[in-house]
Amino acid sequence: MKSSDHRTAPGARALLTGFGLLVIAVAAAVSFGAESVSLARVVSEPESLDRTIVLSARLPRVLLGVVSGGGLAAVGVAFQTLLRNPLAEPFILGVSGGAAFGATLAILFGLTALSVLGASLIPLAALAGGLTATAMVYAVARRSQAPSATSILLAGVVVNAIASAAITFLKTLVSAAKAQELLFWLIGFLDVPSPTALVSLAVYVGIGATILLVDAGRLNLLALGDDPARHLGVDVRALERRTFFACSLVVGGIVSITGLIGFIGLMVPHALRRLFGPDVRVILPASLLAGGGTLVLCDLVSRVLFRFLHTEPPVGAVTALIGGPLFLLLLGKRLQT
After folding, report:
1. CB pairs under 8 A, 24+ apart, for 103-110?
2. Is the pLDDT of residue 66 over 70?
3. Domains along the chain?
4. At 135, is the pLDDT very low, low, confident or very high (cuts 50, 70, 90)?
5. What pLDDT is stored for residue 108 in this prediction?
6. Whose C-alpha in 35, 132, 133, 197 is 20 to 30 A from the C-alpha of 51?
7. How many CA atoms lie within 13 A of 47 on its CB side?
8. What are the pLDDT digits (tens) for 79-105?
9. Read out DSSP for 175-188?
10. How far is it, in rounded angstroms, from Cα 309 to Cα 327?
């Protein structure tokens, strides 16, 4: 019994930490912003302006941040474990860039109002782009029995460059107003989503995250290496395919609504791993909670800056300013080892 308690304690602490961060972030984001509101009036006065602001604007935006941040952090855990590289992250690996290219194609060809079997074509196009980018990085990584961090990161940089160049080319074919709209979207932002978009995103992220959670134990074994995992009964290739599909599903759904938001998948898993160890069964669910809280807090910073800058910086810029230096720090440490 003591041994079991010892194993489960880190999981409980990690979940409590992630849940606590999420609750604090949501409470702060609902309470503060460009306009001051009173939560007491929100609760006690159904017709008040404060209630309208919270329920119609802030809460949907906060929920979008919770779902998006949690999904990006969970994908970061999966990629880092699958590639055995703590620097792996959907933005850095080019998966987000590929998803953005797929969504950009769908938007430019006027497919925003179309659907297949009730599913919007924008997330589906982003999923196709993310899967293509993932396959390209995976092909490079599999060329070596022990792919190095450098080769994987270089593959991601190249894929990102290709996607960025393709998007830039497409922007030259549209009007200046449409190009400006695409530019803002590609930087990454959280806006007030429609109920349909929010529910659709929750379905995409929920399906992908469920696949990853079910496979968390197998991902733990895969971290030991392909051969040890195979000897322990893991179908390595099937696990890799499921993981890449789940990650692309999550990233595609998020990018189709928020644009490119980077480094959440790097910052959150790394911090949790430092605190609670590398067990994927612990870090993955905790990252779902903490990732949502982290992105909501970054978006709160963006909204509060409006008071001083009289403009609202995209949340993608905020996460890049925080996560970029962290990535350089981690990369420097790995190059020294």
Report:
1. 103/129, 103/252, 103/255, 103/256, 104/167, 104/170, 104/182, 104/186, 105/129, 105/170, 107/182, 108/170, 108/173, 108/174, 108/178
2. yes
3. 2-336 (1.10.3470.10)
4. confident
5. 80
6. 197
7. 0
8. 999 888 888 888 888 888 898 898 888
9. -HHHHHHHHHHHH-
10. 27
